[in-house]
Specification:
Length: 401
């Protein structure tokens, strides 16, 4: 029998809403029910063949050992080239780049390296759910500032952001393109945030894992590219998961000034130690090899985004706006008068469709759900039709349609 309680920090971690919804869906599937999974932020495509082959070759060639904690120098060089070419960020491979085993760990290292107990961390809501748990693990205090919506775009509320800064504020976390809202921050918005961070001496954690998924001419801008002063205080977090459909291979990278990189490296050393050697070799192929498969995947997401929009916009009571980036729809269902768990469970039981309850993305998400279009066209359209049927049996309680 266990006598001692587990740690308070572990107790404080909220379970993942995606995992909870998936568990409910699996139960239904075990009963023989067809469930439409529109819940996970996971590309349904396979890892491109050239990348898989590189990983296999690497195993055969003996890349099965520890690598330097910060990652293989040749991969760090490939990342530095890509950062300069694509993100307009100049980073020294030997001291400003750390290879992680995915964006999740990258975010965790960034938070752990900057946040002390009692420090406040500003997030723009709706935000990627795990940020809250990471800040809590570091003993920090999450300060949620809702974004303001105009048309299809969610913008940071700059006045509220400035008011929210206190002597205890240490970090602002941003995510562009945004999971779940799908908004892509403009250069002007990023510059305003960057200047605010400089004024108040804040760190910026910039989560850019959806950088390639931008549509209709929207441009992804890396905040660290905007000025030397902004770059100095920014930790850019990126990953191979979404762009190269490499979710299960676990690879990412963080970019920051040498002292933050060193701090992250120390925490990495005592947690995950290093990314798998064979995956790092595959990462070089991903960055330096042909990008045709990436382009093909992105054009499929773009097609699905339009297909889904046509059907979603016909559903009465649901308010949806066209995402500027990512592979998510952020659906406003407040007109049905239910909280987001109630509506997600209703959708599952009546439509057999799995979506993510909006409250997982902060208080501003209540009454919303997130729908992922990283799934086959067939699954997506059948799921949306079933969702529409189920919602048509509900009575919207407010004026939106
Ligand atoms: C906004 C955001 N950041 C980071 C991640 C981390 O992804 P990974 O750990 O697979 O790189 C995800 C994954 O869903 C995400 O949506």
């Amino acid at each position: 029998m266990q006598r001692n309680p587990i740690s308070r920090r572990a107790e404080a971690i909220h379970p993942s809403a995606v995992a909870e919804m998936l568990a409910m869906g699996r139960k239904m599937e075990a009963e023989g029910i067809k469930v439409y999974r529109l819940v996970q932020g996971e590309p349904d495509f396979d890892v491109p063949e050239n990348i898989r082959e590189a990983a296999k070759r690497a195993l055969d060639e003996g890349y099965t050992h520890y690598t330097p904690n910060q990652g293989m120098p040749i991969l760090r060089e490939a990342v530095a080239d890509k950062l300069e070419r694509v993100n307009r960020i100049k980073a020294k491979p030997e001291s400003e780049i750390i290879i992680t085993n995915g964006g999740t760990l990258g975010l965790y290292l960034a938070v752990m390296a900057t946040v002390d107990p009692g420090d406040e961390v500003i997030v723009l809501a709706p935000y990627f759910g795990p940020y809250a748990n990471m800040v809590s693990l570091a003993g920090g205090i999450l300060v949620e500032i809702p974004m303001v919506k105009s048309g299809s775009h969610y913008s940071p509320d700059l006045d509220r952001l400035s008011e929210a800064v206190s002597p205890r504020t240490k970090v602002i976390m941003i995510n562009t393109p945004s999971n779940p809202s799908g908004s892509v921050m403009t250069r002007a918005e990023l510059l305003a945030i960057g200047e605010m961070a400089c004024r108040h001496d804040l760190y910026i954690i910039a989560d850019e894992v959806y950088e390639r998924m931008v549509f209709d001419g929207h441009e992804h801008v890396s905040i660290a590219s905007l000025s030397e002063e902004i770059k100095e205080r920014t930790i850019t977090v990126n990953s191979f998961s979404k762009t190269y459909a490499m979710t299960g291979m676990r690879l990412g990278y963080n970019v920051a000034n040498p002292s933050i990189t060193k701090a992250m490296s120390k925490i990495y050393q005592v947690s995950a130690r290093c990314a798998a050697a064979s995956t790092q070799i595959a990462g070089i192929e991903a960055l330096r090899g042909p990008q045709t498969e990436v382009e093909r995947m992105i054009s499929r997401y773009a097609e699905r985004r339009l297909m889904a929009y046509k059907r979603l916009s016909r559903i009465k009571g649901l308010h949806c706006c066209m995402p500027e980036g990512t592979f998510y729809y952020w659906l406003d269902m407040t007109s049905f008068g239910m909280n987001s768990w109630e509506i997600a469970k209703y959708i599952l039981s009546e439509a057999h469709v799995l979506v993510t309850p909006g409250s997982y993305f902060g208080g501003a998400g209540d009454g919303f759900v997130r729908l992922s279009f990283a799934t086959s066209e067939e699954n997506l359209l059948a799921g949306i039709d079933a969702l529409g049927d189920a919602l048509s049996r509900l009575q919207p309680t407010s004026g939106r349609s």
